[in-house]
Amino acid sequence: MRAFVDPDLCISCGFCAGNAPEVFEIGDEGKAAAIADTTEENIDLVQACIDGCPVAAIRDEE
Predict the structure, then answer these.
(1) Which of 49, 11, 47 lies closest to 31 in space, CA to CA?
(2) Per-residue three-class SS string for the chain
(3) Residue 39 near residue 22 (C-beta atoms within 8 A)
(4) Is 37 within 8 Å of 2 (Cβ atoms)?
(5) pLDDT value at position 62?
(6) From the centroid of its chain, how far is CA 30?
(7) How many CA atoms are closer than 13 Å to the CA of 23, on its beta-carbon side?
(8) How many other C-beta atoms lie within 10 A of the C-beta of residue 37?
(9) pTM for the whole thing?
(10) What are the CB-based long-range contacts (under 8 Å, 24+) for 48-54?
């Protein structure tokens, strides 16, 4: 699985990149993006980012 950040919804708050920098980063356009797959080791962090995104811009995809 891999997280997906909808760039149309992302408000660049940095919540995901700040909490799971090994999975998310803020790109050159100022929007968050997933840079790594969701694994057993980071699934809890990814879920916390999904749950904590203030605009629900993150989802996990197969």
Answers:
(1) 11
(2) CEEEECCCCCCCCCHHHHHCCCCEEECCCCCEEECCECCCCCHHHHHHHHHHCCCCCEEEEC
(3) no
(4) yes
(5) 78
(6) 13
(7) 27
(8) 11
(9) 0.91
(10) 48/19, 48/20, 49/3, 49/15, 49/16, 49/19, 49/20, 49/23, 49/24, 50/3, 52/15, 52/16, 52/19, 53/15, 53/16, 54/11, 54/13, 54/15
d(CA 37, CA 3): 7
Amino acid at 62: E
pLDDT tens digits, one per residue of 8-40: 999 999 999 999 999 999 999 999 999 999 999
Token digits of residue 17: 């990149």
In single-letter form, the type of residue at position 44 comes to D
